Amino acid sequence: MPTLIDSQTEASSILLYNVYDANHYGASQSFTGVAAILDSCKFYLKKTGLPTGNIVSKVYAHTGTYGTSSLLTGAALAVSDNVNVATLSTSVGLITFSFSGANRITLVNGTYYVLTVEYTGGDGTKYVSVYGLKPGTATGNSGVYSAGWSAQNWDCSFYVYKDDATTTKSFTLLGVG
Questions:
Q1: Contact (CB, 8 A) for 31 and 142
Q2: Is the pLDDT score of 172 beyond 90?
């Protein structure tokens, strides 16, 4: 069972961003890592119209002032498995993004990261909406891509989980006398 690392509840969430094309393809949220393997994350999303294709979540290194002007930097450190946007509901709900294989990266305790949700298969009538709070109570802050990434002073509704199954357990075999 994965364990929660960081979050911002979806209670009282409002629409923050619509993501759909090359000029408006993502929303982000900064979070603090723990010494563990990344398992999954959730964002509070819904679809409008009939978008097609896949949406993913990515983890990036952090730049800026954490909680105020957090932005992503460099290439993605991890990319989630695809989620087919056709399976999203027209009602808001928590959508899980799982990280598998080489994308199950080891996070560093106390290091800041930026988590994104990214989608480019829609247009102004078929898109994915990202929800959150203005202002939020998470320690990080959100961002949006609109012809470039910009930091925002609110929080996406999100959850980040570590993998507990990889913890090492030891035991001793007792011989029969």
A1: no
A2: no
